[in-house]
């Protein structure tokens, strides 16, 4: 049985999946002042509904890439396209959602109101947004914490509110930048399981940045290892692991093999 505050995925009200988008990055270049070339002609093609882990040395440009994909920054050269095109259609409010390492919750708002925020910002009525937030909070195992405030939550619970807030818009692309890095290993492992279960249920495309080789191998279908900057692709690998994953996978030879390959690529990327 899961300890208090860390429930397994609830079978309660499903939120409908909106499917994923294909993300195609072509010849992407980004140089920061001081002639810091972070990306230089990067190509990456992410299939709709896939779960891709991005690994690479610190400072190689992983967050920069996510920010560019999210439209939070502009590249000097290159192109990012989404198929189908990420336009807001009726009932689809924010096709891209971004989760950071810090949960960034508003301390004066309840869990429910934090999770409902993206819908409030786009003018969704209170009953409708609260119902949507409740459903997604159930999905992340926080159905009984809707009236609590961020200060009353553990770090893992705060991250789950952050995840719920990202999912409340039914995004077609979910970008996660080391979302569980600050958590203890047990909590992190449980959140990895929840995230993977949500992805399998909802089918959005996921780009997940992590420094953890075992987290990447456990979560993703495909891992892309980048070199130090300017980031180039050292390894682009579809992981030979089962779709159904549980903690015991981490002790299996197939998992150890994938982890070793990722580790070797990371070491190679440091030398490039
Ligand atoms: N706005 C900015 N202005 C100047 N330099 C920047 C800016 N944003 C990022 N950089 C630099 O670009 C490089 C890549 O940063 P980025 O955050 O993308 O790396 P990262 O791979 O995500 O690193 P980490 O794994 O340590 O989080 C770093 O050298 C960073 O200092």
Summarize the structure in words.
The chain is 33% helix and 22% strand. The chain is an alpha/beta fold and 272 residues long. It folds into 2 domains: 40-86 and 172-271, Rossmann fold; 105-170. The strands form 2 sheets. The protein has a 6-stranded mixed sheet, with helices on both faces. Strands 2-1-4 form a 3-stranded antiparallel sheet, with helices on one face. Helix 2 (111-121) crosses helix 3 (126-139), helix 2 runs parallel beside helix 4 and helix 3 packs across helix 4 (155-167). The protein is globular. The N and C termini lie far apart (46 Å). Bound molecules: adenosine-5'-triphosphate. This is ABC transporter, ATP-binding protein. One of its GO terms (molecular function) is ATP hydrolysis activity. Keywords: ATP-binding, Nucleotide-binding, Transport. Pfam families: ABC_tran.
């Amino acid at each position: 049985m899961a300890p208090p505050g860390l429930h397994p995925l609830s079978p309660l009200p499903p939120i409908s999946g909106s499917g994923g988008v294909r993300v195609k990055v072509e010849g992407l270049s980004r140089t920061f002042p001081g002639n810091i070339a972070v990306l230089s002609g990067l190509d990456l093609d992410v299939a709709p509904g896939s779960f891709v882990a991005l690994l690479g040395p610190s400072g190689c440009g992983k967050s920069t890439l996510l920010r560019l994909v999210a439209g939070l920054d502009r590249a000097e050269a290159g192109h990012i396209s989404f198929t189908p095109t990420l336009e807001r259609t009726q009932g689809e409010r924010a096709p891209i959602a971004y989760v950071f390492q810090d949960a960034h919750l508003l301390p004066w708002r309840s869990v429910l109101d934090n999770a409902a925020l993206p819908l409030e910002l786009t003018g969704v009525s209170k009953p409708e947004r609260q119902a949507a937030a409740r459903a997604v909070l159930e999905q992340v195992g926080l159905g009984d914490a809707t009236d609590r405030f961020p200060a009353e939550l553990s770090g893992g619970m705060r991250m789950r509110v952050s995840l719920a807030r990202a999912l409340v818009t039914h995004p077609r692309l979910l970008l996660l930048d080391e979302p569980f890095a600050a958590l203890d290993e047990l909590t992190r492992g449980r959140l990895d399981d929840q995230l993977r279960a949500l992805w399998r249920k909802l089918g959005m495309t996921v780009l997940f940045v992590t420094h953890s080789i075992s987290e990447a191998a456990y979560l993703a279908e495909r891992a892309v290892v980048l070199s130090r900057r300017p980031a180039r692709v050292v390894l682009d690998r579809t992981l030979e692991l089962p779709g159904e994953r549980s903690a015991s996978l981490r002790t299996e030879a197939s998992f150890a093999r994938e982890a070793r390959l990722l580790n070797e690529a990371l070491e190679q990327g440091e030398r490039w």
